[in-house]
Amino acid sequence: NKAFNQKNHLEIAGCDIVQLAEEFGTPLYVYDEALLRSNIKDYQKRLKELHPDSTIAYAGKAFLCSAMCRLLDQESMWLDVVSGGEYYVARESGFPTERLLFHGNNKSPQERELVLKNGIGRWVIDSEWELALLSKEAKNYLHGKLPVFFRITPGIDPHTHAYITTGKVDSKFGLTLVDGIAQRVIRQALSYENLDVKGLHCHIGSQIDSLEPFINTIKAMVRFMDSFKEQNNFVFSELDLGGGLGVPYLEEQKGKFPSVQEYVEAIAKTLQEECEKYQYPLPKLFIEPGRSIVNNAGNTVYTVGTIKEIPGIKKYIAVDGGMTDNPRPILYDARYQAIIANRVNQGSPEMVSVVGKCCESGDVVIQQTETISVQNGDILVVEGTGAYNYSMASNYNLIPRPGVVFIRDEKPYLVVRHEGWYDLVRRDILPEYLIEKG
Ligand code: LLP
């Protein structure tokens, strides 16, 4: 989806990025809409082939705005939301609430009320405390019995960054299988007539680079489902495996992650085999991919400002954004690669460090990368920023957040406007006693 035109400018999905930067300003998140849709269709097609009774709930936390909700609705997707805010944005956009799946380890009273009032496809119960609350509140649910999953922490280590590991026994999420805790809590739920226990959920982590942890998770889950059936004579009709498939961020990582095809094959096959082994009725399968649907479709466009060379040591290239629009390097030591969009392949290569404009030395976009020699005013594109960039952006240093453009049929559409400085005082309140001048 990337090419260079006669002006030697980078094109994404047929759009000249230099022109785009002029028209919309920088920094700017740019998504290739066709690629978003084809990533979705790829998942749908491959999963349906192997497990016809399946549902893909895109994990909204990776990237969500009204336009994305509409696109997901058009593609008949489900959507996994983790807060009242994500639920609200989805519902405001007209996304059908019966295709929403509601997560959260500490859902607030307001969030629970919002969802109970307006409907939900699946509600994922995360704790014993939440079940106790729902046992009373679910009678207010307007659409009959509340369809619920229970989140299980199956005790699997996915060998990814500690901050995005979620399925080990020591986790703030879910019910542990240890000491029969999950078993006891779910058995309790079966006695509540306002709850419709559909199945189990588990999510072991994110940016996972091998299939083995997913396979082990399925084994642990089916083993548990079977023992629950033996002891309680109850069959879970659905199983949600969460998301977590990792993606390459650098050229050299390509081919090092399982493809969507390999991932889907592995989970569908393992689930089938394990169910056969225990003679357990094959459950309907849910998955919740986020990163692997949006990451490669998104890029961030910056303008290069200050260039500082420390002879023999380093060359710093400062761009007009940084940790405010992409906190992943400072949070997880995440690595990225970049292209100079206005002079593609012109000039000699050099090693540079791409940094942001925040008042912290850790505000690094790329520690070290090779680019063609960079000049002030160049347009620098960081690739593969579609996931967990816009959604994790902040106003640190009171820097306004960038807008978002979708490119469709070679034309740009602004789908989130840039914040302006005026947005930064919108929520401020000045009590009377502070109005007097000094
Ligand atoms: N389902 C659940 C319950 C999750 O917690 C997550 C991600 C997903 C699905 C989607 O996982 P994915 O397919 O995107 O890996 N901010 C971090 C990632 C945090 C992921 C949290 N949960 C990052 O920038 O790497």
TrEMBL record:
Residues 29-386 form the Orn/DAP/Arg decarboxylase 2 C-terminal domain. One of its GO terms (biological process) is lysine biosynthetic process via diaminopimelate. Transmembrane segments: none annotated. Pfam families: Orn_Arg_deC_N, Orn_DAP_Arg_deC. Its EC number is 4.1.1.20. The keyword Chaperone does not apply. Pyridoxal 5'-phosphate binds at residues 244, 288-291, 388. The keyword Amino-acid biosynthesis applies. One of its GO terms (molecular function) is diaminopimelate decarboxylase activity. The modification N6-(pyridoxal phosphate)lysine is found at residue 61. Substrate binds at residues 291, 328, 332, 360, 388. Residues 39-294 form the Orn/DAP/Arg decarboxylase 2 N-terminal domain. InterPro entries: Ala_racemase/Decarboxylase_C (IPR009006), DAP_deCOOHase_LysA (IPR002986), De-COase2_C (IPR022643), De-COase2_N (IPR022644), Orn/DAP/Arg_de-COase (IPR000183), PLP-binding_barrel (IPR029066). The active site is at 359 (proton donor). It is an enzyme of class 4 (lyase). It catalyses: meso-2,6-diaminopimelate + H(+) = L-lysine + CO2. Pathway: Amino-acid biosynthesis; L-lysine biosynthesis via DAP pathway; L-lysine from DL-2,6-diaminopimelate: step 1/1. Its cofactor is pyridoxal 5'-phosphate. Keywords: Amino-acid biosynthesis, Decarboxylase, Lyase, Lysine biosynthesis, Pyridoxal phosphate. HAMAP family: LysA (MF_02120). Homodimer. Specifically catalyzes the decarboxylation of meso-diaminopimelate (meso-DAP) to L-lysine. Belongs to the Orn/Lys/Arg decarboxylase class-II family. LysA subfamily. This is Diaminopimelate decarboxylase. It comes from Atribacter laminatus. The gene is lysA.
